[in-house]
Amino acid sequence: MGDPKRSEERWWEDAIVYQIYPRSFADGNGDGVGDLAGIRGHLDHLAWLGVDTIWLSPIFTSPMADFGYDVADYCAIDPVFGTMADFDALLDDVHARDMRLLLDWVPNHTSSEHPWFRDAISGRDAAHRDFYIWRDPAPGGGPPNNWEDAFLQKPAWTFDAASGQYYLHLFLPGQPDLNWANPAVESAMHDTLRFWLDRGVDGFRADVIYAIGKDPALADDPPEFVGLPHCAVQHEPATHPLLRRIRTLLDTYPQRPMMIGEVVALDVDVMVPYFGDDDELHLNFNFAPTYMPWDATFWHDAIIAAEHAHRRVDAWPTWVLSNHDIPRHRTRYAQWPNPEVDTTGSEERARAAAVMLFGLRGTPFLYQGEEIGLEDADIPAERVVDPGGRDGCRAPIPWTAAPGHGWVDPWLPLPQHAGIRNVASTIEDPSSIVHLYRRLIDLRHDEVVLRDGACDVFDTPDGVVGFRRTLKGHRSVTVLVSMNDVPTVVEGVEGTVLVDSLDATADATGFDGRLGPRQAVIVEASPVGAG
């Protein structure tokens, strides 16, 4: 698994991270909602796949207005997921498999059902009033500024008639923003981190962490930003000292816990300052790929931009194709370049994307189910539950081909094609995408050049992304990803295929530069014309 010292001190750079959305992963008690017992019962699938780090979306006590991203108690397990004993058993089982566990920490806001807010809204003199951001109405009445929330496209302020003030919420009214300018809030939130670190967790994914620092003036967004949710443009210098103090706390723990931040910025140059001088976040999500079309020019430029930006600040990149907030990449690619669904094309594009994900320099993040090629579920209007319209990508994982596919009356409809696109059926088929993922993960574990090597993009024919991974003392490999729907020839690249997106069973076959439609390969070779 790479250099032993780095694996211990900066283990996240070698990690393969798998995101679990607990409500939809596996149901251990048959109530239709995924839970900790269900996760625990399927850890062997993740171990077989080769995953070494698991990230759990929120499992804390919540009224579920935003399905766990509205926390009512940071130090308790919501009963829908189980008990603290269930969590401790899960953590023990994860560690017993030499895997690590990350929790989803929500620092920007709480639920309006949190005891802090219940006290804060009781009056202007309440002990926790300053735990949240309150302001008087604007002159002439109305919200204090023109900020809009992320879900309802309404003012990010709710009026409390009893006290005559508004409180700020960048998301739902039931998610009031914490006031991190108050040292008591910072101390209390540090305590929530300590609670889980003391139990032995290995780190955190920090939800909208970039938004915790607010401009005290709370100035209006400029005209060009009106109509956008304020969280999309919220990048304040006040956040950075807060992150440095969080990092100081994390660095005191012997398990070397890691924090990856959700910093929503499609421009990587806006994102990288949140690394600080290696004294803020350990990792940042690179969100650009989740919004890009299946187009080689976009990917070529995005890889170069990510490499330049991260090298400039000596930081480590991440790559992600799907998560719980956006349509799955197979669904997105099925509609590129035409809106009509192309089943064959989407399967091959999903396979090629997997090769690219594991070929790039940086920590790869998988979203549950992408290893079996899941698409978004079709959610009828009467089954919609999410305020952000994200139910399709959060549909439950089909585990078996049997009726119900491992679920009894699941909380959301299952994705289409669950009868063939389920864990059991794909594992039985050696040519399926799950075996491609497993092969890629094995190769990543075996080849230090894919973890530590430089990544240099080179010129290729139109529609093809090509980059070389090199490391002194190790064999170099070339990654080619054709986004064309016709065969393409790449001159100057010949050698031995280590992984072929179209044939997960292929072993050490020759490569002469010819790529089929939507084919990706990792080749032991050195391309010419490197740039």
Describe the structure.
By secondary structure, the protein is α/β, with parallel strands linked by helices. The chain is built from 14 helices and 21 strands. Helix 11 runs parallel beside helix 13 (433-446). The strands form five sheets. It has an eight-stranded parallel β-sheet with strand order 11-10-9-5-2-1-13-12, with helices on one face.
Count helical runs.
Answer: 14
Count structural domains. Answer: 3
Largest sheet: 8 strands, parallel
Measured between the Cα atoms of the first and last residue, the distance is: 29 Å
CATH architecture level-2 label of the largest domain: Alpha-Beta Barrel
Topology:
Layout: H1 4-9, E1 17-20, H2 36-41, H3 43-49, E2 53-56, E3 60-61, E4 73-77, H4 84-96, E5 100-105, H5 115-120, E6 134-135, E7 157-160, E8 165-168, H6 183-199, E9 203-206, H7 239-250, E10 258-261, H8 268-271, E11 283-284, H9 296-312, E12 318-320, H10 329-334, H11 343-359, E13 363-367, H12 423-428, H13 433-446, H14 448-452, E14 454-457, E15 464-470, E16 477-482, E17 488-489, E18 495-500, E19 509-511, E20 514-515, E21 520-524
Parallel strand pairs: 1-2, 1-13, 2-5, 5-9, 9-10, 10-11, 12-13
Antiparallel strand pairs: 3-4, 6-8, 7-8, 14-15, 15-16, 16-21, 17-20, 18-19, 18-21
